[in-house]
Every structure is written in structure tokens, then in C-alpha cells.
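Example S7 (C-alpha cells).
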């Protein structure tokens, strides 16, 4: 794992978008794993800008989102399907037939989960997985005690997550209590992972996820087991990290980061 600290939420999101751009330019038929949430909005805005101003071509890309709420339709403005179409898919030249989210209205949870895993397998896995992190330490909706080898499945949301996300529902009590989510094992199968976290509210959980012991109580700690994970944070989200000096040195001195300065 490596940690990159950027001066602001904007520059952290821009670096994330630039990494996605580089991956698409190296492999136009990239399989992208995508996240939703407030943090990702800046990344998607930047990708749209790069698409418009520099012609970044998404036409051959395939996407798989991490998760979707159970029991709400595509038309629901709080569904992740709606979010992805609003913030990204309808603003770039991706073929909508190549964009995938679990079907929140599926009645057979096991069949839907297995189908999602199978679709990922058929495209030979995810090349680049984008992640955010919840205050519970979740990646996707892998709440505390998710097995570190878990696969796509239906998961009950924790009280911390319900508190974090119910503001996106009207009324807040209508927020579903369950979701489909890729498992931690599914996420760890991705060839490259980038987790983005910004803001003071994420400082505590980022310190635990990056520098704490690996534990199923904090799903994001499982990323320490992955051979190619980059955590990108702004100054606020980095503020509780003990080894900040080392992480800053890496960005300044490792040749890989030269082109992003
Ligand atoms: C959503 C997802 C979640 C979010 C996390 C952070 O698809 O995978 O893990 O990334 O809850 O959400 P925000 O960015 O709203 O703080």
C-alpha cells in the first residue's frame, strides 16, 4: 500500500481522475470498478472535464459498481443507478450496455450476487477499482465483521452507515437497511486499487485503515493485503496519520509520481 497526500480535496480528486485517465489510455478496454458517494462527485466531474477537453475515450470501457441499495428502483433518485447516470455515464461516451450495477429489485439475493460475480469473471476481472471509505471503515458496503474473503452478497447496513447516508433519502427513514455489495474478496481480486478519502471526518478511519492492524471490524484494513493499492487523501483526511513524512517523501521522490506533479 502507498499513501499520497495532496493539499486539497480538489487536487486529491484530480490525481484520482488522472490515474483513471492513464489506465484508460494504456488499456482502452479497461474494466473499471466504480464507487458512489459524495467524495466521488469531484472525480467524476474531473473525468467529464478530461473527456470534453482532452477527448478521453470511454467507448470501449466496461464498468462494475460496488454496490446498490436493495428494494429501490432505478427511478429512485437515491439509487446508485441514478447517481452513476447523473454524475458520469450520461456525460461521457460510455456504451451504457457496458455499465453494470447490482439490481436492487432482484428478489433472489443469492442468484443476483452470483450473476454479478459471474459477469465480472467473464470480462476477466476488474483492472482498476476505485474506492471511497465510510465512517464505519466500509469499502463498498462491507460493514464491520464482513469476511475478508467475502464475495458479492446482500448485506445489512450498520447504524453508522445508515446515519451517514440517510440524508440522501427523503424522508431519511426511507433509506433501505440492506444493499448488495461486492465482497472484500471481490475487491481484492482487482489488479489495481485506488481509495480516495477527503475531509476531517475521514481522518480517524483513514488512520485506522492504513496504519492499524488488519481486522474484519474495519473492512478497509484488508487493502493492506493487496499488492497494488494507493490511498489518496487530502491534508484533512491525512491529519491523524503517523507516517506522513514518509508518505510525502514518496510522492516527491518516486519516479512513478513525477508525471502527476
Ligand atoms: C458507495 C461506496 C461507499 C462510499 C463510502 C463513502 O458506492 O462504495 O463505500 O464510498 O460510504 O461515501 P462518501 O464519499 O459519501 O463519504
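Recovered sequence:
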Amino acid at each position: 500500500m502507498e499513501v499520497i497526500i495532496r493539499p486539497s480535496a480538489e487536487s486529491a480528486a484530480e490525481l484520482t481522475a488522472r490515474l483513471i485517465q492513464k489506465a484508460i489510455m494504456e488499456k482502452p478496454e479497461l474494466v473499471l470498478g466504480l464507487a458512489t458517494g459524495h467524495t466521488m462527485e469531484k472525480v467524476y466531474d474531473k473525468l467529464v472535464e478530461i473527456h470534453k477537453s482532452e477527448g478521453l475515450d470511454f467507448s470501449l470501457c466496461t464498468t462494475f459498481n460496488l454496490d446498490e441499495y436493495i428494494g429501490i428502483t432505478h427511478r429512485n433518485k437515491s439509487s446508485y443507478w441514478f447517481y452513476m447516470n447523473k454524475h458520469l455515464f450520461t456525460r461521457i461516451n460510455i456504451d451504457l450496455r457496458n455499465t453494470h450495477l447490482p439490481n436492487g429489485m432482484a428478489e433472489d439475493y443469492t442468484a443476483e450476487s452470483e450473476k454479478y460475480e459471474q459477469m465480472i469473471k467473464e470480462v476477466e476481472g476488474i483492472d482498476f477499482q476505485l474506492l471511497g471509505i465510510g465512517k464505519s471503515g466500509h469499502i463498498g458496503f462491507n460493514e464491520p465483521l464482513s469476511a475478508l474473503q467475502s464475495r458479492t452478497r446482500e448485506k445489512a447496513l450498520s447504524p453508522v452507515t445508515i446515519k451517514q447516508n440517510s440524508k440522501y433519502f427523503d424522508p431519511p427513514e426511507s433509506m433501505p437497511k440492506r444493499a448488495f455489495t461486492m465482497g472484500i474478496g471481490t475487491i481484492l481480486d482487482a489488479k489495481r486499487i485506488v481509495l480516495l478519502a477527503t475531509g476531517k471526518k475521514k481522518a480517524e478511519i483513514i488512520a485506522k485503515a492504513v496504519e492499524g492492524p488488519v481486522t474484519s471490524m474495519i473492512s478497509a484494513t484488508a487493502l493492506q493485503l493487496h499488492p497494488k493499492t494507493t490511498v489518496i487523501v487530502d491534508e484533512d483526511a491525512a491529519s491523524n496519520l503517523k507516517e506522513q513524512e514518509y508518505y510525502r517523501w514518496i510522492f516527491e521522490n518516486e519516479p512513478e509520481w513525477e508525471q502527476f506533479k
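Notes on this example. Residues 35-39, 66-67, 80, 132-134, 138-140 surround fructose -6-phosphate (CB under 6 Å).
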